[in-house]
Design a protein that fits this description.
This protein has 22 helices and 2 strands. A hairpin with a 6-residue loop joins strand 1 and strand 2. It is an all-alpha fold. The protein is globular. Strands 1-2 form a two-stranded antiparallel ribbon. Helix content is 69%, strand content 1%. Helix 7 packs antiparallel against helix 8.
Length: 474
Amino acid sequence: MEKFEGYIFTALCSTNFLISCLLFSRVTREQREPYMDEVFHVPQAQKYCSGKFNEWDPMITTLPGLYLVSVGVIKPVVWLADLTGAVVCSTAMLRFINLLFNCGNLYLLYLLICKLHLREKTRTTSRRVLSALSLSTFPVLYFFNFLYYTDAGSTFFILFTYLMTLYGCHKASAFLGVCSVLFRQTNIIWVAFCAGTLVAAKMDEAWKVEHSKKRDEKSPPSQVPLSISGAKKVLLFTLEFLTSPSHVKVVLLVAWPYAAVGVGFLVFVVLNDGIVVGDRTSHEACLNFPQLFYFFSFALFFSLPVSLCYHRVLRFLQALKKQPLFFLFLTCAALLLVWKFTFVHKYLLADNRHFPFYVWKRLFQRHELVRFLLVPAYVFAGWNFLDSFKSRSLFWSLAFLACLLAATVPQKLLEFRYFIVPYLMYRLHMPLPSLTRLIVEFLLYTAVNAATLFIFISKTFHWPDSTATQRFMW
């Protein structure tokens, strides 16, 4: 980091932390008691603070990473400051842990942007800094910095894991990957993605060598072949690569720490008889393929200022004109998946405190045909998503898409929090946008954050059968 850039970024971190602290103070004053999932997380963390590590709330479905980190941070502070009484491990003190993770996420995002866009380093100081700031205020993630949820810490450890992978520190990356899994079991998918990037790099090298031997090939080596013959070629090459002892040996020499984490996770799944700990009734896996379409739409909305432009729309129309049968096939496949594989979780229909409840009620439940009429929009959103990766290599793109499918499709519940990590990974790997576009993106995120926090604080309501104050949230 250059000296001037270092000063700018330090000032930015300080300002961001100060504003977040002011917002945190307001949220905590308005909602002093644990809210929503905090009613499970806060008492469990307080048990750990009291040294009761053998007590566990069966309603909690994630591993105790958040509580262990909270105790590891709070206990030394309590000892140094000689704190006693109700303030120790209070709801506010536990929530503040996520504000610290927010600072860490800002720094990690900045380091990742610098690493991923190394070639543009000499001309993009302001764009890198603003891009990191903008992503750290990504609305769904930023909102949960003020509550005692697992999202801020989970994101922190996944970003840290990926950063270490990029720097070639694979043992450290695998250890951090274990930490991320302790926050949320599904993070094993993104640990696998880190390993997948190593495999993809080796496959890209082998693909280019094979491609260069065939002089009759017209498309560049990194281009994804959008045809049946092209897909067949990639599939056959992948099978040949993964069954070659020499290739497997080369990959394992580098990726063995991740393989060890994967084996350990499989042992956990076998011993636990599943991924979920605690209450499993509301966390059953299914093949909810439209979740991928919801994510594409979500990504299109939040990346609108930096991804969409006139030229991209024009390229889509040209692609539509050039390959009408291919897009017709995609549309028919999407219609089939929406028809046969749409699952609706009971919480989505019943819990009116979450924004997805209103998205579903006012859009999808307006008419039974709405979900089918949205398919063309899904196709465009998916094309826009993939077009953002055209500078990435073939097998890196395939590895990312495989992990994206694994992270979204098995989820029955439409929950925007599940989209945080895949969206950040998508946005980090996009080419650095112009300064103007980044400013518009930051203003969009700021407006959404202001609106959601205002609604959470001010627009309270009560259920007929309860005196507790209810609030709207992501």
